[in-house]
Amino acid sequence: MNNKFMNLTFLLSLFYFLNCSDAETLPYSSFENQILTEITKPEFTAKVTRIIDGDTLEVIYGELPVMIRLAHIDCPEKRGSQPYGNAAKKVLSDLCFGQNIKIEFTGDKDRNGRYICVIYNPEGLNINKEMVRLGMAWHYKKYSTDKEYAELESEARKNKIGLWLDINPIPPWEWRK
């Protein structure tokens, strides 16, 4: 290699390390930290890019993929082929896939690092509540005391909507055991 190229490489490397001496100042880490700070605001808007299952989705915020777990609800499991697991995923997809949704961050993350949120479609429909109303989710009483979700579940049960068509549906928290 010629000397000019080696000198230029050395100078660029030196400049890089002097300006990026720790992980917090690396360009991507800095961007990621900025995005994560934005996400922890009470509300933000992002585009839904992937539906994982009935209560989990991925959004793109800035350039960062963010996993969202829907607050107050628990849906049948897609894994292990729990009845209505695939139906719940499809309903969530129909309600919000590809849309820019409003996201209310509860301030918590679950044990898998997903942001626990309430989401709204562009028309202002509360998707979390809609999943319960359509019989695609249980009110997750272990983590929620919101009476509206309990009432929506009770109404869906009474009217035998969605998973409530089954005589004895198994809650996801039991299915996962």
Keywords for this entry:
alpha+beta, 177 residues, 25% strand, OB fold (Dihydrolipoamide Acetyltransferase, E2P)
Report on this model:
This protein has 177 residues and is an alpha+beta fold. The chain has 2 domains: 1-39, no CATH class; 42-175, OB fold (Dihydrolipoamide Acetyltransferase, E2P). It has 6 helices and 7 strands, in the order ααββββαββαβαα. The chain has a 5-stranded mixed barrel. The chain has a two-stranded antiparallel sheet with strand order 4-7. A hairpin with a 2-residue loop joins strand 2 and strand 3. The chain is globular and about 45 Å long. The termini are far apart.
Fold topology:
Blueprint: H1 3-19, H2 27-39, E1 43-53, E2 56-61, E3 64-70, E4 73-74, H3 85-96, E5 100-109, E6 115-120, H4 127-133, E7 138-139, H5 147-158, H6 172-175
Parallel strand pairs: 3-6
Antiparallel strand pairs: 1-2, 1-5, 2-3, 4-7, 5-6
